[in-house]
Amino acid sequence: MNNTELKLQIKRLLVENLMLQTTPEEIADDIPMFGPGGLGLDSVDALQLVVALDKNYGLKISDAEAARGILRNVNTISEAIEQNLSNKAP
Amino acid sequence: MSSRVILITGANGGLGQAIARSFLQESPENQIWLGIHARLDDAEKLAAENPGRCRPIALDVTRPDSWKAAVAEILARHEQLDVLVNNAGHHQDALLGAMPLDAWKKILAVNLDGVFHGCQAVLPAMIGRRHGRIINIASLSALLAPAGQTNYAAAKAGVLALTQSLAKEVARIGITVNAVCPGYVDTPALAMDELERKRALERIPMRRFGQPGEVAAAVRFLACAEAGYITGSALKIDGGIF
Question: B127-142 pLDDT, tens per residue?
């Protein structure tokens, strides 16, 4: 899977898991997940997202500081997934 | 009714046993896990009577690592955990002036910290399926705190607050969190002499103690699909004490 496909998959995951009232295609790669200028997610959404990323990609986000870095936008999530996959590669 | 995976803590006690039996009767498909710590004879007997449907599992509710191991074992077998009944509880009554600090800490650890650890342990699995039922066994002492139970009443009142707060956090994920507040229930834990029983009965408008099965029925209802719009509630089961 290339990076573009991965980002689209992440956007679908966001829409389906968090029941966002938007389409995956409308989510920009760099739109902030949290705050009024972004998707407007809150801490409960973040919790769901952490569980979904673990379930779908085996990405374990162990603490709040790591979550703040990874869950900034689609770009940072896809980077974390790719990094995690490359760390696991033999 | 489809198969559900249910974990009940404090499953060796009279109330835990009744709750387990109630879920066993609800559906032959239900998978019951009996969380047990110090005593296990009754839980092992119940499991032996229901092979393949009911299993004891070691669980010290005061320890997060024990919760983690228990939930991992359940998920390894079923890949789901639908219902958590936080039933484990203990009381060690004393007037506050004479209450040892250990009695305060121990009762808070089992009755309140245990519920916190349990909810935290099961939430990822429930969030992953966007479905779950958490039922916390509080107590009438949380609402009408009697003398001599500052530790127990405070812990159970904390359980009610935790229940309400968590219910709001996870409502939109399809997880409900409710509490029941039993009054005097006729289990070995009631441990009253004849005079104490007589005085207690005088306080109960129904003039009888509750039966474990009556509490279990309420727990089973709060866990069922039809109770899906009930969350953050505290249901009194006390024969009408106000």
Answer: 989 999 999 999 999 9
